[in-house]
Amino acid sequence: MDFVEVDDLKRLTVDRVARFMMYRGYKLPIGVLYKGERMSLLYGPRIVKIIEKNRKSLRYLHATYSGDKRFEVRYIHSGHINAVDLVAKTCSCRSWQLSGVPCGHVICSLESRGMSSDLMLYVSDC
After folding, report:
1. N or C: which end of the chain has fewer CB within 10 A?
2. 76-103 burial, b if ≥16 CB within 10 A, otherwise e?
3. Does residue 18 contact residue 30 with C-beta atoms inside 8 Å?
4. How far is it, in rounded angstroms, from Cα 113 to Cα 106?
5. Separation CA 83–CA 100 (nearest Å)
6. Are 90 and 105 a contacting pair, CB within 8 Å?
7. Which range scores top for mean pLDDT: 7-11, 84-88, 122-126?
8. With contact defined as beta carbons under 8 Å apart, do 42 and 120 qualify?
9. From the CA atom positions of the chain, what is the Rg in Å?
10. pLDDT tens digit sequence for 6-50
C-alpha cells in the first residue's frame, strides 16, 4: 500500500478520507457513520465491541451458501456446523437471537457473499 502525506489528508474532509481509505483497501471501523466533518456511531460502543470480537472468529470458520440467504458455517478444525438464515435472522448457535447482535457465524456468512457492508442491517433495534 502507498503511504499518504499527512498534509494531503488534512485537506480532505472525513467523508473523503473514508472513501479514500476504502478505495485503498483499508477496513473502516464497524458502525461508524461519516457525515461531513463529524463521526458518530450508529450503535453504542458496546455493540461495536461485540461485533469486532465476533469478527475475530472468522479465521476459524468457512461458510457455504445453501440458497435463499441460508448458509452452513463450518469450523475448520472441528468440522462442527452451524446453520444461518439471514431472512429469518436465526443461527443454530442461538447467540444472534438471544443478544440481537450478529454472531461470528452470521458475519462469516455475510463476508463470504461480499455483503459485509450490510452487517449493521442485521443488528436488532431493541
Report:
1. C
2. eeeeeebebbbeeeebebebbeeeebbb
3. no
4. 11
5. 17
6. no
7. 84-88
8. yes
9. 17
10. 656 556 555 566 666 655 655 555 555 544 444 455 677 788 889
pTM of structure: 0.68
- What pLDDT, in 10s, does the model give residues 26-35? 555 555 554 4
Judged on CB neighbours under 10 Å (0-12, 13-18, 19+), 73 is buried
Which long-range contacts link 42-48 to residues 24+ away (Cβ below 8 Å)? 42/120, 43/120, 43/123, 47/101, 47/123
Instruction: Give the other-Cβ count within 10 Å of 109's Cβ.
Output: 30
pLDDT digits (tens, 9 = 90+) for 55-81: 998 999 999 999 999 999 999 999 999
Pairwise CA distance, residues 89 & 84, whole Å? 8
Average pLDDT rounded to a whole number, residues 101-115 = 93
Give all strands (DSSP E) within the chain, no chain letters: 32-35, 38-41, 61-67, 70-75, 81-85, 90-91
